[in-house]
Design a protein that fits this description.
alpha/beta; Rossmann fold; seven-stranded parallel sheet; 9 helices; disordered C terminus; binds NADP nicotinamide-adenine-dinucleotide phosphate
Length: 258
């Protein structure tokens, strides 16, 4: 890697929001380390980017995958940005779903995010510069029948990020952390979880490039929670303040469908 350039590590770079981060950051001059399981997709992406790009094939639901990614972070003294983006959803009532999928979701969304952030901040805080973006969801602001673990793991990301922000600000550190909370975004996400998206109105869909733009603008401004698009900003603010009893009544029709 070029010693003079800033570097970023992006997990889940093989499609969707992760690929959009990779393209946008490479266009902005960052060297990249791209992490995911699908090698062909990562190599195809890397070959079209204008800056130096390394590919790391890792399953972030496994100890070996997380440890290899931690090592890549430790070994990169120029790491300016970590994007914890890898993630997936599952469908179905919690007690009826395959427990392996639920465990993997906690490994990818919670354990990997926690360990990689720890590895990144251990270098960034002494250097006095850098940032960590963790891709959460508007699902973090509520609960949805059929997606209970998804909402809970994303709520963890928001809480973790807000706590880190408090620690960093108390130190007067210039290092920034952000929980990025998109709504419906056109990626492979829904296809992978076999979700029928026909009933989701077109105006609710976001474009991954736009999500990334809002995230990076928010990072520059030191925003700890970024909810792209005004419709979702209003929705997230409402969800945060609704009493649980009201949310429960709203959730009932969805609960019957799962
Ligand atoms: N799309 C939406 O509507 C939406 C809304 C809110 C939040 N989000 C969040 O956005 C993030 C990115 O999702 P996306 O929408 O871009 O979906 P996507 O197109 O399905 O991309 C998901 C990425 O995560 C990676 N990934 C999944 N499991 C992994 C594992 N065990 N180890 C390593 N990488 C793994 C996938 O790579 P490999 O399969 O190659 O490993 C892929 O690159 C996720 O955290 C998701 O929860 C999405």
């Amino acid at each position: 890697m070029n010693d003079a350039r800033a570097a970023a590590l992006i997990t889940g770079a093989s499609s969707g929001i992760g690929t959009a981060f990779a393209r946008r950051l490479a266009a902005g001059g960052y060297d990249l380390i791209l992490v995911a399981r699908r090698e062909a997709e990562l190599r195809a992406l890397a070959s079209g980017l204008p800056t130096q790009t390394e590919v790391l094939i890792a399953d972030l639901a496994s100890e070996a995958g997380i440890a290899a990614t931690e090592r890549a972070i430790h070994d990169c003294a120029r790491l300016e940005l970590l994007v914890n983006n890898a993630g997936f959803g599952t469908m179905g009532r919690f007690w009826e779903t395959d427990i392996e999928g639920q465990i993997r979701m906690h490994e990818v969304h919670v354990t990997a995010t926690m360990r990689l952030t720890r590895a990144a901040l251990a270098g960034m805080v002494p250097r006095g510069r850098g940032g960590v973006i963790s891709v959460s969801s508007v699902a973090a602001f509520g609960q949805a029948p059929g997606n209970v673990s998804y909402c809970a793991t994303k709520a963890w990301i928001n809480s973790f990020t807000e706590g880190l922000d408090m620690e960093l600000r108390a130190l007067r550190s210039a290092v920034r952390v952000q929980a990025l909370c998109p709504g419906f975004t056109r990626t492979k996400f829904h296809e992978t979880m076999e979700m029928d998206t026909k009933e989701i109105p077109g105006f609710l869909w976001l474009d991954a490039d736009r999500v990334v733009e809002e995230s990076l603008r928010g990072l520059e401004r030191g925003k700890v929670t970024v909810v792209p698009d005004w419709k979702y900003k209003i929705g997230a603010a409402l969800m945060k303040h609704l009493p649980h009893g009201v949310k429960r009544r709203m959730g009932r029709p969805g609960g019957d469908r799962v």
